[in-house]
Design goal:
This protein is an alpha/beta fold. The chain is 32% helix and 19% strand. The chain has a 7-stranded parallel β-sheet, sandwiched between helices. It has a 3-stranded antiparallel β-sheet with strand order 7-6-8, with no helix packed on it. The protein has a 3-stranded mixed β-sheet with strand order 15-12-17. Helix 2 packs across helix 3 and helix 3 runs parallel beside helix 5.
């Protein structure tokens, strides 16, 4: 199978490329090497893939990239919360604009093959919550006043009572709460609209908190795992916002790459198209992750994590997932445990950025 991997030089995209090449597939990569994620061309590029260094938003680039491909794995995107709302133009241009150009190019050749999109759990907003009195409820965004007071847990919108967080499933309502989240949901909508019009199979993989080698370091667009890992490497205490009790599902990049390959090669069956959580099903707190990285580093220079309070307004409190749909329909189950993955990540090579 000939697969186009957009963003195939990046953190997750490169892992997908490696697994596809290892599986005997022909791989074409288009990557712009966005300066927010890349200081230079990476030295880990797979010799078995063909690379084009160009901006996918250019329709001529997109048209050249999709020639003769059997499937598309769309990883290219700006990720993370960014610096502030001023990033909105870049996020929309790179995430929505590049997706639109890619789909227009596929439309021009009447492509009806498999489309796999890198989406994100951020489309859910807060996760799934249950109130003892009112059952499952959807709490609104946490207010600055409560966050400033150190009241981090969402409250029942009916009675202001305590809530119990539970695993979110793919049929949960979406509620994007920052610019990045809004663009990821729009990408899902664009891909779904294309697939309906062209009778193509599509899969949106809603990644949970991905970590592993080749993550970019020293950038505000990096994930929390990279930020903590870089701090420990410098001999600094990882700074944990809120009280560290935020629950997430941390999943290794190699497992995420396996999920992409599974989505690309799964048989064309009626229930294939749709959204899938890519998660382990075993949540941990952000403080758990910071402590695991410091412990795994095994270096006396790395002090214990420091819980500093504070918050980022675009963050949510708890979001972790049920991976049952991916297991049932794609045959994907995460294989790397939290302990094993964090131990390896503590000394893994990260990608330098400016």
């Amino acid at each position: 199978m000939h697969v186009l991997v957009t963003g195939g030089a990046g953190f997750i995209g490169s892992a997908v490329v490696d697994q596809l090449v290892e599986g005997g597939h022909e791989v074409t990569v288009v990557d712009w090497l966005h300066p927010a994620a890349h200081q230079r061309r990476p030295d880990y590029l797979n010799a078995g893939a063909r690379y084009t260094w160009a901006d996918l938003r250019d329709l001529d680039v997109a048209r050249a990239a999709v020639v003769d491909v059997d499937a598309v794995c769309h990883q290219a995107a700006m990720v993370g919360l960014g610096v502030d709302f001023a990033d909105v133009v870049d996020y929309v241009a790179h995430n929505d604009g590049a997706t639109a150009a890619l789909l227009r190019a596929l439309h021009d050749r009447d492509f009806a093959g498999r489309l796999v999109l890198a989406s994100s759990m951020v489309v859910y907003g807060e996760g799934r919550y249950r109130c003892v009195a009112h059952g499952f409820v959807r709490p609104g965004p946490r207010t600055s006043a409560r966050l400033d007071a150190g009241d981090y847990e969402p409250r029942c919108p009916e009675c202001d009572g305590e809530l119990v967080p539970e695993a979110v499933t793919e049929d949960a309502p979406t509620d994007p709460r920052n610019v990045y989240a809004a663009t990821k949901l729009h990408q899902e909508h664009l891909v779904a609209a294309y697939a309906r019009e062209h009778d193509a199979a599509w899969v949106a993989l809603r990644y949970h908190n991905v970590y592993g080698p080749r993550m970019p370091r020293n950038t505000p667009y990096a994930g929390v795992a990279s930020i903590f890992r870089s701090a420990a490497e410098r001999g600094e205490a990882p700074r944990v916002f809120e009280d560290g009790g935020q629950r997430r599902d941390f999943i290794h990049v190699d497992d995420v790459a396996r999920a992409n390959v599974a989505a690309l090669v799964a048989p064309d069956s009626a229930p294939l198209s749709g959204c899938y959580n890519v998660a382990t099903g075993r949540p941990h707190t952000v403080l758990d992750m910071a402590e695991a990285l410091v412990a795994a580093a095994g270096d006396d220079r790395s002090p214990a994590p420091e819980v500093v309070g504070g918050y980022r307004l675009g963050d949510v409190r708890h979001v972790f997932a049920s991976p049952a749909r991916a297991a049932d329909r794609l045959g994907f189950t995460a294989e790397i445990s939290f302990a094993e993955g964090m131990a390896a990540f503590a000394t893994a090579e990260l990608r330098g950025t400016a």
